[in-house]
Design a protein that fits this description.
Layout (H helix, E strand, L loop, with lengths): L13 E2 L11 H4 L6 H13 L3 E7 L5 E8 L11 E3 L5 H8 L3 E3 L2 H7 L1 H6 L4 E9 L4 E10 L8 H23 L4 E2 L17 H12 L3 E5 L5 E4 L1 H7 L3 H4 L4 H4 L6 H13 L3 E7 L3 E10 L2 E8 L3 H7 L13 H13 L3 H15 L4 E8 L2 E8 L4 H5 L11 H8 L3 E3 L2 H7 L12 E9 L2 E10 L7 H38 L10 E8 L10 E8 L2 E9 L4 H19 L4 H14 L6 E9 L4 E7 L5 E3 L5 E3 L18 E5 L5 E5 L11 H15 L4 H14 L7 E8 L1
Parallel strand pairs: 1-8
Antiparallel strand pairs: 2-3, 2-7, 3-4, 5-6, 6-7, 9-10, 9-13, 11-12, 12-13, 14-15, 14-18, 16-17, 17-18, 19-28, 20-21, 21-22, 22-23, 23-26, 24-25, 24-27, 27-28
Length: 726
Amino acid sequence: MPGSGPFGAREEVVGVSDGPRATQAPATARTRVGRPLLSLALASMMDEVHAHSGAVYLLASGEPVLEMAVMAGLPRAFAAPWERVGLSAPIPVAEAVRERRLVWVGGEEDMARRYPRIAVVLPYPFALAALPVATDTKVHGAIFVTWPGSHPPELSDRERDHLSAACGRLAVRLERAAEESRPVFPEPDLLAGTAVGGAAGTLGTVEAARMVSRLPYGLCSLDLHGRIAFANAAAAELIGVPVSSLLGTQLWASVPWLNDPVYEDRYRAALISQQTTSFVALRPPGDWLSFRLYPSTTGLSVRISRARAVAEMSRSAPQGDGAPARLVTISQVLSLAGALTEAAGVEDVVQLVADEIVPAVGGQALVMLGSRAGRLHVLGHRGYPDPHVVERFDGLPLTEPTPGTHALNSGVPAFFDSRQELERLYPVRNATPDGFAAWAYLPLIASGRPVGTCVLAYAEPHPFPADERAVLTSLGGLIAQALERAMLYDAKHRLAHGLQEALLPHSLPALPGIQAAARYLPATQGMDIGGDFYDLVPSHGVASAVIGDVQGHNVTAAGLMGQIRTAVRAYTTVGQVPQDVMSSTNRLLIDLGSDLFASCLYLRLDPAHGRAVMARAGHPPPLLRRPDGKVRVLDLAGGPLLGIDGSAVYPTTEVELAPGSVLVLYTDGLIESPGVDIEDALADLGRRLAAAGDLPLDALADELVGQGGAEQERIDDVALLLLRAR
């Protein structure tokens, strides 16, 4: 209605709905009487093109976000995931605004192909048009309207013209309102009223109620929210709940054995598609009931009867054959998502998909494909009797016309119901039969780019309806995220192990009078790379050994470790004595300006004279096993950690090294573990050395690290160097 506003002109209310519970405008809106602009525009537009639902979005102030202002024809809960939509979101209203054009989605399959995220939430037959609400200079928002699945697959010129003209008119009025600083107020969503009560007290209504009460089957009337507005006595008797307890409630909320998302889904399917839907449900202990839903734009009529035959029940019931009604239930998706977050490497992802997803979607085999340097690579496969059938595709150029390369290059999923369909489109597959009869090629897209392709193979011909394609495409998104993380994880670990191998000696030199063996185990926390090091250096007719530990187990520690090891080797080669090697290395570490410290144990071996000279910088003491089997801890004099004090001195200690003696040099990761006293751990290491000291040196090394190596978690790196005097 016209009204006098502060600008001396007729004032119009431009509304933003608060959702299903918003039944009227706030008091401030009611003081300024005007027409609900958005609601009227939406209702008129839907009426002109015979759409059954729709919504108006407005651009949020100062944000690249569309906010739903009013919805019509369906409960807002149906569109809850899209009440606030970023302009970059892959959904029709956002695309309509970005590209300033009408976006048409012609049906269920079109939705599954182009907008799988919507299709997995609303896997029902319906058509949709989205348009920007914009003038030549400014975008104000967007509108979408939907039709039942019976709508033709193409939008007619008349419908297109009506929609475009209506959006243009609304944009002009919104722009005028903005220029005149007219406020924006909430509006109620446009939903039909209850299905009863409009003709109360008339003879026809009374007689209709009498007629319905005489029917042998149950009848219920549901509003658009699924609430029961009417139920006859037969419905109450069949369901086993009094009419008084049913009225105003939803069937799946008031009847315990109907409290299953599958049944609520049938109500949603009927309303969105405006097509009759049905299901069969078991009323405990053994009565099967048939529910048939007849939708309209005002609600639904539900007919309830006993299921006529077990065969019909088995075909219709969501759980009649013990299988889930949906391809993958919500709980399965959550479980799969949680499991995929635990997958570390690519092999873990392949195994998890094979164990969890392939059986859930009815498949029998799996191939995971990736690309590198312009070629296809098989990342893993399961379920193929002959692995060579799959592996022959490894290294194939991405330019080859195969379904795997096409899905990887295009990012578009492909579904082949039968072998004939696949071979018709890709004749090259004639030469590579794999024994399967249907395939789904799912592009794995993460961070906006394809990271691979997941191929699901089926033993029998398998149709892929639109809702199943939507579910599989969405599962592909979950797999893609896990695969991207796994590939980064594997790359990081290849880098870490390569760097560690480059910094540690590939082998120990053969020395006269000395037998040596070494082991290195990285910490399981961090990057599997650390600052522990060891080396054995022949020089000037004698041999020098060193073991050390730089703080941390990361790339920085490993890089500093490489510098220290190189320095020790250089100072040894030029002939410095042990105390000078330690002092020179200490000054170098300080000159490098690193914040990290390092422990170190350095010794000069002279097996010909049966002795060893050692210098220690804050490192755990070595163990010495004598030829008689007795073990003692060598309590050596020493100086502070390297990198603390540039003037520090490192005294040396001479130790007798009789033939048959074994020196055990190690880092603290070998003896330190949470909750274990360091002295007890050292004593235990000594006992194991005494018991196994006569083993060949490699076997002894495995024995000493065996306990720490078998543990699933190591909080620190472990380095071990064994020296036996011959």
